[in-house]
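Researcher: Here's my situation. A collaborator sent me these components and asked whether they could plausibly form a single complex. I don't have experimental data yet, so a predicted model of the whole assembly would be a useful starting point for our discussion.
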Amino acid sequence: MTDARVIEIQGRFTSGAGDLDSQRLCDVCADVSKMSGAGIMMMSGAIQRGSLCTTNKVSALIEELQFSLSEGPCLDAFRDQRPVLEPDLAHPSDGRWVAFSEAALDAGVRAIFGFPISIGPVKLGALNLYSDQSGGMTTAQHRDCLILADTVAHSVIMMQAHATPGQLAQEFEAGSDFELGVHQASGMVATQLTTDVAQALIRMQAHAFGNNLSLRAVARAVIGRTLRFDGPGDPVVVSSSEV
Amino acid sequence: MNRESLLIATFVELTDVLVDQFDVVDLLTRLTNRCVEALDVNAAGLLLADPSGELRVVASSSEAMHTLELLELQSSEGPCFECFHSGAPSVNTHLTAIDHPWPTFGPRAIAAGFLSVSALPMRLRGRTIGALNLFRCDVSDLSERDLVAAQAFADVATIGILQNRAVEEAHIVNGQLTEALNSRIVIEQAKGMVAEHSGADMAMSFDKLRNHARSHNLRLGDLAALVISGDISPGSLDPSTVPAVKRGNRPRHND
């Protein structure tokens, strides 16, 4: 890893018009790595926080799938603190992420790579990079991705360091998706079931899994009041005429 | 242990800085002890600049009072002071020579039994953070290979210190980030509870929470946490009689 390349890549983040925001982080990652798209997943300990940014619909779907299914390359990269590489998602070397892979393949993902975003022992999240062509990264690409992940880590810390205490950095507003709808819906379901929000979230996840829906779709239905969890037995889909 | 093994062991020790609970003072004390064990020096000390740029003694191979005093003295005069401000090594100065430039430091060092002194910068990419001080009890020069090894020790320790500072800052900021995200999530959950209880939409539910927080002098995040924990029922919130703030001024809690 030469210093010159580090400086060159860091320059890509800081040069150009406008301030560095979370969207630029993702755009530069996709561009420098020569991938079809990039996304940055945020974690707090083992808790998924949603995504800081994504470059297109497919990378947004990759983030959502991992949030919804609790499996995927970024979660593995984060957990093991090492790059996780799947150059051929259609013919993987092992049978990991079965549900994730099926949906990602449907969306056109052919190769996917996860890199941990951390500063020493401080773990922030993971960078997801995907390609619509199968095939591994070159050594140079792989090296660049390590530099990208490192630069993203320091950029995130730098942005948040300047934030108003108790609030998220303004720069995170551009393109971030912290799955707020899911949390709103878990509040509603908790009230319906007179239980706590953690239990409510588990019920929503079970419903999503059992009906082959995304967690986000379940949340949308709850907020739109077309789905309730307080009927006898299974959750009740409320027909639109009753709403 | 022979010299080579000692050098290698020292590098391993000094690079072991990315583990949790890494202690800068412990690392630097070990560094000064290894200098005495592996190199031809009788005492070693280390000074780092504090945030105001003043040199402070951080570690010493000897806890003897006269050695510590010699190190402390160099916040204003002596080889470390010079080395820190120039960023360049100051090597093998013979304190018995009449032309050395340290009127206070020189005689005190001689009184402590040291006749020759060197200082090496703690430096990374043009930034000097302190200096490593090496004392000898005779006037013969420290060999070139010892100076190279000592500078390498100092360089590795510098990287460790700067890395540790970056990690500490990252740790604090990441904690703040987690708290800010938690607060945001708790507010969304509370909005959901209020919405379900009252039949209002998310924007109206947010207004209800905010109005109640304001009129009861609570922070919004704290009120939301009380609603989530069941300590405040969504039904007991003040009715939202206050007209909502203009939409454009509303923070992004409504998406």
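Model: Some features of this prediction you could bring to your collaborator: Strands of chain B lie at 43-49, 55-60, 90-94, 116-124, 127-136. The CA atoms of residues 95 and 106 of chain B lie 6 Å apart.
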